[in-house]
Write a structure and sequence with these properties.
Layout: E1 17-18, E2 26-30, E3 40-45, E4 51-54, E5 58-59, E6 65-77, E7 81-87, E8 93-99, E9 108-115, E10 122-129, E11 135-147, E12 151-155, E13 173-177, E14 180-182
Antiparallel strand pairs: 1-4, 2-3, 3-11, 4-10, 5-10, 6-9, 6-11, 7-8, 7-10, 12-13, 13-14
Length: about 180
């Protein structure tokens, strides 16, 4: 995914793509700031414009938890936000979450997490400078992780005090799913 924007193809950090918006915005690799390596993604958003740089769409598994993390350095104004976007098989966006990092003139980490909704087929990470958020920011070390909800079966080893199981009744058991006991 080229998380540190180090690998360039024709001067651009492939496989990231620039949204096909009016070309009044500026985004691209820069050596002016870097959290690791020698490059980062510089996003300059002028008043009244928007700019978006995104990963290719990646396979998504409904019900899985996804987390995108990055390091953000703000040169001026408001930094670009980071989105996790989910799309169905037809390519329609069906869900998203985002984080709007605080403006800091030091490298700060940012993360956004989301559960892939039912019907999600793909997802992407979008670095987006909104129309109302004028500023210059640098983004580096973008990482996307997936965690699968875990299920652990619990068996009750003894009855609660004063409770007995009637003869022929099923054994008491519970399932532990993402921190919740379902009996």
């Amino acid at each position: 995914m080229n998380p540190s924007f180090e690998d360039l193809t024709g001067g651009w950090p492939a496989p990231w793509t620039l949204d096909p918006l009016p070309k009044t915005q500026t985004a691209g690799p820069s050596t002016a700031q870097a959290h690791t390596g020698t490059r980062s993604l510089r996003v300059e958003n002028a008043s009244g414009t928007a700019v978006g740089v995104r990963t290719p769409r990646l396979p998504a598994v409904p019900g899985s938890q996804y987390t995108a993390t990055s390091w953000v350095y703000t040169e001026s104004g408001e930094p670009a936000t980071m989105f996790l976007e989910f799309f169905n098989a037809s390519g329609t966006r069906i869900g998203y979450e985002f984080v709007a990092p605080a403006a800091n003139s030091t490298w700060e980490d940012a993360s956004v997490s989301a559960l892939a909704p039912a019907g999600a087929a793909t997802l992407d990470v979008l670095i987006y400078g909104a129309v109302a958020a004028e500023g210059v920011s640098f983004h580096d070390d973008v990482v996307l992780t997936r965690s699968v909800p875990s299920e652990v079966e619990l068996h009750v080893l003894s009855e609660p005090r004063g409770h007995t199981t009637p003869p022929g009744a099923p054994e008491l058991s519970a399932a532990w799913i993402d921190g919740v006991v379902n009996a």
